[in-house]
Design brief:
about 20% strand, eight-stranded mixed β-sheet, alpha+beta, globular, 5 helices, three-stranded antiparallel β-sheet, single chain
């Protein structure tokens, strides 16, 4: 009898599965079934909110329904060491849209250097609409259901640990963008950040079966070229993407806001040339 009680206590202490409430939060095309080891999540990846118009001048990719089927650990386990993020999908939002790693294929900060639509997403070459940062429209929709942003359940990472809204609590120094919920450091949850890299995940804390690609950080200083974007929410822009990360030159200048018009490099050069000519008195004001 004592042995049975010990076994039950141990099983409870190491079981950190998604709660029934968290599982019930998945909506839209998402379906979740479970076996002894995994949740099997399926989704067509279609967002349940308005998006930009794709393709457009900056993003030649067209959104397409997907056939996501992913095994998520039923009882996620904190690994002995963190794992670098893989390219492409690192988790799923509650609306079935994929979370991607925070970097472009050139290892730049995608949120600063790529053009996202008003809801914080865009499609890659395979038509996968995805988020690199906070899913803005989804977040705003869920805000009315919670008292604090940190209570908002946004989705799940591939290692099985939940992803929650921003928190004022100090995050763990491991760089994975989350915190332990117990002194034994066995229960973990990720917290997104609206302004600070890596926005969603910086690395995996739990055991995960995908292969990492060494994406631990991004160069946020190289802004490269820019792409002009229309001002309307229906015509947000992006650069080409490949294999889950974004190809091409960065598109959003530092401090820029997605969904706003950006000056073209040619316009900037003309303005600079005019200033030089006026300075040297080669032309009149």
């Amino acid at each position: 009898m004592r042995l049975a009680l010990v076994c039950i206590a141990v099983c409870i202490s190491v079981s950190h599965a998604l709660t029934d409430e968290e599982l019930a939060a998945f909506t839209g095309s998402v379906s979740i079934t479970s076996n002894r080891e995994n949740h099997i999540l399926t989704s067509d990846g279609t967002p349940d909110h308005d998006t930009g118009t794709f393709p457009n001048d900056c993003n030649p990719n067209e959104m397409a329904e997907q056939s996501f089927r992913r095994h998520i650990p039923l009882n996620p386990t904190v690994a002995s060491s963190t794992s670098p993020l893989n390219k492409g999908i690192i988790g799923y939002a509650v609306n079935g849209v994929a979370f991607f790693n925070p970097c472009t294929s050139a290892n730049l900060d995608a949120t600063l250097n790529e053009e996202l639509d008003i809801c914080g997403g865009h499609p890659d070459q395979k038509g996968v609409y995805h988020y690199h940062g906070v899913p803005k429209c989804l977040f705003e929709e869920l805000m009315s259901q919670y008292q604090e942003p940190s209570q908002i359940f946004l989705g799940v990472a591939l290692d099985g640990f939940p992803i929650y809204g921003p928190t004022d609590e100090p995050l763990d120094a491991n760089g994975c963008n989350g915190r332990f919920l117990d002194a034994a450091k066995t229960k973990w949850q990720y917290h997104v950040s609206e302004t600070k890299f890596p926005y969603i995940l910086g690395c995996y804390v739990g055991e995960v079966t995908v292969d990492g690609d060494g994406i631990d950080t991004c160069d946020t200083g190289n802004l490269g070229g820019r792409c002009s974007a229309p001002a309307t929410p229906d015509e947000e822009t992006d650069e080409e993407a490949d294999e889950g990360t974004d190809e091409g030159t960065p598109t959003v200048p530092d401090g820029g806001k997605p969904g706003r018009p950006k000056p073209r490099p040619r316009d900037e050069l003309v303005e600079l040339l005019m200033e030089i000519l006026k300075r040297d008195k080669l032309i009149e004001d």
